[in-house]
Amino acid sequence: AHQWRGVVREYAARLPVTETTRVITLGEGGTPLVRAQALSALTGSEVYLKVEGMNPTGSFKDRGMTMAMTAAVAAGAKAVVCASTGNTSASAAAYATAAGLTCAVLVPAGKISMGKLSQAVAHGATLLQVDGNFDNCLDVARKLADSYPVFLVNSVNPARIEGQKTGAFEVVDSLGDAPDIHVLPVGNAGNISAYWKGYKEYCAPYESATAGTLPAVSTKTPIMWGFQAAGAAPFVAGHPITEPDTIATAIRIGNPASWDLAVAARDESGGLIDSVTDEQILQAHRWLSAKEGVFVEPASAAGVAGLLKKHAAGEVPSGKTIVITVTGHGLKDPDWALKNADGSSIEPQRVGFDVVTVAAALGLEGEA
Ligand code: F0G
User: Fold this and answer.
1) CB–CB of 301/294 below 8 Å?
2) Which whole number is the average pLDDT over 319-341?
3) Which positions fall inside the Tryptophan synthase beta chain-like PALP domain (predicted)?
4) Does ligand 1 come within 6 angstroms of the Cβ of 288?
5) Euclidean distance between CA atoms 345 and 72, whole angstroms
6) Percent of the chain at pLDDT above 70?
C-alpha cells in the first residue's frame, strides 16, 4: 500500500528540491477534506473543510516547515529562529529536532495557548516570552537572522510559502478541480498567499526545474475569501494596527508580513478580506464541533465564521463548491470548549457508580 511521504516528496516536481536534497519531514500533509454536512445544508453549496489540525504538530504550519527546514539544512544552518503566535513555534521546534538543528522561538508573553507552548518546550526549543506582541517578535527575529548566524523560518522565508502551497494542490487533487470559493483565516497572511500561488500554478502548464513541463491540473482558480478577527484586521482597515486584540491568539497580528502577496491574492482572484468578531468566531467554533464533528482552535474557525456572516447577508451562492481551511487542532487550545456563550464554565455532571442514577442522569427510560 502507498504510504504518504510528506508534501515535499509528494510534490517534489513543483518544489525547490532535487533528487539529492535531504528532505526533513514528519509525514505532513495528506490531510482530510471533509464534507461539512451542516454548512452544505445551510448554504445549498457543497462545503468542504480542509482539516489541517491533522498535521503532525496539529496545524498547517507543518507544510511550510518541512520545506523551510529542508532549505535550512541545505544552506548549512546550525540554528533556526522564528517569531510566533504559537503554531509556528510548535512546528519549528518539532522539525528542528528532526533536522538536528537548535531552535529559538520568540512568542508574545502571556498570549499563546498552553498546548502550543508545551509543544515548543517538549521538542527542546529555547522559548523566549517577549514583552510585546507578535509584530514586535517578528521584527526582532528578522533582525536576529540579519545579524547573527541563525536561519529565519517565518513565512517571510519563501520556502515556507512554497511548502504551504501544497494545501491547494491537495484540494484540487481531491475534488478533481479547483473549488469556486476558498475561505480561510488571515493573520500574518502567508497562508492565503500560499494557497493562491498553489491554485495559480495548478491552473497552467508548469515549468518544473526537475521534471520538464507539467500540464495544467485544474481548469480554474477559486475566488479567495479571507477573514481576520475584528480587533486585528489590518487588511480591512487598509493599514497596520498597532494594538491588535482578539481571543483568537493565533491571528492576533497587526502588521502582516505578506501584505502585498495577500492583497494580490484577494484582488487577482476577485475575492475579499473581511473581518469577524470574537463572538462570531466562538459561534463558528461551536458550530464546527457540535454540528460537523470537527474540533478546531478558535482562530481556525474564523473562515467558517466568515462564511456564516456572508450567508446571513445573502452573499453565499448556492450550487457551488466551497472549501474552508480549518488551520489548527482544537486540542491546541481546548479551554474554549468548556465555556458557554456567556463565558460561564461548563462543568460535566458528577454521579455515583450505580446504573439507575446514570440512566436517570442520561434521561433514559426502562428497567434496570
Ligand atoms: N490559523 C492558525 C491556527 C494560525 O496559527 C495562524 C497563524 C493562522 C490561522 C493565520 O495564518 O499567518 O498564514 O495568515 N499563525 C502564525 C504562528 C502567525 O505564529 O503560528 P497566516
Assistant:
1) no
2) 96
3) 24-328
4) no
5) 44
6) 99
Q: Kindly state if the Cβ of 154 falls inside 6 Å of ligand 1.
A: no
Residue 328 Cβ contacting ligand 1 at under 6 Å = yes
Complex confidence, ipTM? 0.99
113 lines ligand 1 (CB under 6 A): no
Pairing of strands 272-276, 223-229: parallel
pTM: 0.97
Q: Is 257's pLDDT higher than 80?
A: yes
User: Which residue of 81, 85, 130, 140 sits with most ligand 1 atoms within 8 Å of its CB, as the best mutation to test the pocket?
Assistant: 85
Q: What is the mean pLDDT of residues 102-107?
A: 98
Q: Which helix (H) or strand (E) holds 130?
A: strand 126-130
* 188 Cα: distance to centroid of ligand 1 (angstroms): 6
116 Cα: distance to centroid of ligand 1 (angstroms): 12
The domains located in the chain, with CATH, are 7-59+160-338 (3.40.50.1100), 61-156 (3.40.50.1100)
Please say if the pLDDT value at position 133 is more than 80: yes
Cβ(297) – ligand 1 distance below 6 Å: yes
pLDDT tens readout for residues 57-67: 999 999 999 99
Ligand 1 centroid, distance to 359 Cα (angstroms) = 44
Contact 304, 288 (CB under 8 A): yes
Q: Which long-range contacts (CB under 8 A, 24 or more apart) does 207-214 make?
A: 208/13, 208/14, 209/16, 209/18, 210/12, 210/13, 210/17, 210/18, 210/19, 211/13, 214/13, 214/14
Q: How far is the CA of 87 from the centre of ligand 1 (A)?
A: 7
* Mean pLDDT, rounded, for 201-219: 98
